[in-house]
Structure formats: C-alpha cells, structure tokens
Amino acid sequence: MKALPVFRRRPYHEVRALMTGLLTNKQDARTTLSALIEREDHSFRVVFEARYFVLNEGETEPSKSQWNNLKKKFKRVAPFVFIFKEHGSAPCEDGTPGCYYIDFGYFVDDRPDKADQPRKPRPPAEQPDRAASKPKVLYPVERDPETGRYRPIPPKLRRRDDS
C-alpha cells in the first residue's frame, strides 16, 4: 500500500466556504454541510446531510455512481485535492444519524493550487483609432408632440436645378 501524501495546510474558513458551495444541492438552496473537521496532518473530513443525494424509491443509500459524481464535482472545483477512497455514513454534528462523510486533503507545493499562483496581467484592450474611424454624423433632434420622446431629424433631400 502506498504511503499517503503530505498535505498542505489551508485556512479553515476558505475550505469551509468551498465546502458550503460544493455541498449545496440543485433542488434545495440550503447547504447540506454539517461539520468540517481538520486533522493534525492537515487533511479534512467533511460531514454532510443525506439530503444532498437524491435517492430513487426503495433506495436507502447513495449509489456508487452518486459518490463518483460528488468526487468529480469536487475535483472540478478544487483540482489539486487528494480524495480518500473511503467514504460512508457518519453521525451528524448534533449526534443524530443521517449524514455522510468524505475525507480529503490539499497536495503540497509540488502541485500548487491555482489560487496560490500569481495572476498574469491581462493585456490592455486595443483602443480603436478615433482619427481613422469615420466621424459620427449627428442630426439635430426634435421632440415628438405625441410621445414626448426625442427623435432625429434626417437631412433634407436637396434638389438640383438642372439649368
């Protein structure tokens, strides 16, 4: 069996904010996060309510596919996370049954998180050359007596005298 990787310390409030958003189900706007436990090795255990998973009739536990979908969602949100294979049922924070857990940790600096990398400055947007562009033709405006709105007065057509 391989040894576990060394985990990087992350601020608790950042991880809790990430988990709160991650464990919000589409059908219910409330978060299912029950508890977030940080261990001495800087890994975390997140305990969440069973209502995160939408179960079909007759099912009492989430399917393997539902667990894998949660792990994939986790990896999309935080790509430099190590997710432990073990997951399952756990008592909720208040001690009542009906919660699940998943364990994870952030890789150390050899796989840096995008949030830790300095952002590259964006190149300045190209400004159009005002001198080379066609000048805008501004028409005089008049107020429409019926609607009260202003409308442009188009240039009048001129007739040439054929003399």
Structural write-up:
The protein is built from two helices and seven strands; from the N terminus they run E-H-E-E-H-E-E-E-E. It is α+β, with helices and mostly antiparallel strands and 163 residues long. It has a domain at 7-109: 2-Layer Sandwich (Threonyl-tRNA Synthetase, Chain A, domain 2). Strands 1, 2, 3, 4 and 5 form a five-stranded antiparallel sheet that branches. It starts with 6 loop residues before the first strand and ends in an 11-residue tail after the last strand. The mean pLDDT is 80.
What's the gist of this structure?
By secondary structure, the protein is α+β, with helices and mostly antiparallel strands. The protein has 2 helices and 7 strands; from the N terminus they run βαββαββββ.
Layout of SSEs?
Layout: E1 7-8, H1 12-22, E2 33-38, E3 44-49, H2 64-77, E4 81-90, E5 99-107, E6 141-143, E7 150-152
**Largest β-sheet summary:** 5 strands, antiparallel
CATH class of one domain: Alpha Beta
Question: Tell me, what's the shape?
Answer: elongated
Alpha plus pi helix count:
2
Computed over alpha carbons, the radius of gyration is 30 Å
The low-pLDDT segments are none
What is the CATH architecture annotation of one domain?
Answer: 2-Layer Sandwich
Q: Remind me, CATH topology of one domain? A: Threonyl-tRNA Synthetase, Chain A, domain 2
What features would you highlight for this structure?
163 residues; alpha+beta; Threonyl-tRNA Synthetase, Chain A, domain 2; five-stranded antiparallel beta sheet; two-stranded antiparallel ribbon; 15% helix
